[in-house]
Amino acid sequence: MVSSKDVAKLAGVSQTTVSRVLNTPDLVKATTVNKVLKAIEQLNYIPNEQARLLVTSRTNTIALLSGPLHNPFFSDTTAAIVNYANSKGYKVDVQFVQDEELEHAYSKILERKVDGIILSCILYEDPFFERLKRLDIPFITFNRKHQSNENFVEIDNEQAGYIAAQALQAVGHQHIAYVGGHLTVSTYANRFKGALCALGEAVSEKYIYHSNTTRTNISEGVDYLLRQSTLPTAIIGASDSIALNVIDELLKRNIRIPEDISVMGIDNVELAAYEQIQLTTVGHETEKNLGLIAITELIEMIENKKNSCVRITESVKLFNRKTVKHLK
Hints:
With about 325 residues, the protein is of the alpha/beta class.
């Protein structure tokens, strides 16, 4: 069997140089790279992956902690992350977790060696963030961020909440309800903050319902809103997932969208634009996938040993479709 020693001998270089060409060719002179590649081709040498990992101390594996699959946002971002990572030669270990399962999920990703960690389930005051920093493993969060304001990719969530509420007011809605997620999460906290800012004195406690984002809890939230003496004319879902569940629950109760109640989402997931759904929502201005942005940054950190802190907040805009009725 042909070995790297044979390649080194034919190319007139050391075995260490052969390893560098295979793993970090950008750090080797172009003439040397060409000599080694010609020797590899001539000898039909196939590098042993495990041997390469021993030399580089790399696993070519990335751990992804994603939010639950019932939220289409995480379906979209997981697909983008896995596809991009695979194209760069990395495997992705994926866990889909609810917030109440975080401790177990954190333990699992620390059980094995990985080259990097990407997660979308960090809580705003999560102590695990400091543990990540001490591990000396590249990591990044997306969609959510930690209170330390480090290593994250997000949309401008406060502005998203503001635009959602303002857009409804602009077409005549005065009785606007809000169904959100737990405020221990930066995404939901900031979207709620933005919506309150736009609503101002028009906000009413009876139209606010914070959910754990499960179908059961959202169903209870819709029942709560429909028990009010004055029904809301519009409901903001703090994510497209919440908004889509709200629509489903309203339709089950024979309430028409948007004729009886308008519904607004936030995220602009791929499903929102489907012809049979056409959800009016707020999302990334250029429709870039946050997962793709985050995994691109993470692999840059891994491969170039980039230690700079990533802070990316993307601009947002309204995607005006068919679930909002104009009242004026």
